[in-house]
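Page 47, continued from p. 46.
Same chain as before, 64 aa.
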Amino acid sequence: MAIKKENWLTPKDIEETLRLSHGTVNKLLHTGALPMIQIGKTIRIREDDFNKFLKTYMNKKFNL
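Result:
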């Protein structure tokens, strides 16, 4: 079975892309607003999920 190769981002990638603080990105991840996978202490976000998140909240206010 062939597995589709996906691009994965780190929380640091999200912080740098959106110019957000570490704390704000953590809130987005741990409230479930931005889907993630966590294995041990390692957190990864699918690039497709990140792009979907951006499209959903573009020109809208997001309250944490």
